[in-house]
Design a protein that fits this description.
Blueprint: H1 2-31, H2 35-44
Protein name: (thale cress) hypothetical protein
């Protein structure tokens, strides 16, 4: 069971990191500070 728990914890930490990245993109979109950020964001996708 320990291995299953560690897999779940890894997925959870990846999900949290993804959510933080989405929040950062939302903030940069609302600021609208230029094309450079949009190019960086589209490069990640």
């Amino acid at each position: 069971m320990q291995r299953g728990k560690s897999i779940f914890e890894a997925i959870e930490s990846e999900f949290e990191a993804a959510m933080e990245g989405i929040e950062e993109l939302k903030v940069s979109d609302s600021i609208g500070s230029g094309d450079d950020e949009e190019q960086c964001a589209s490069g990640l996708l």
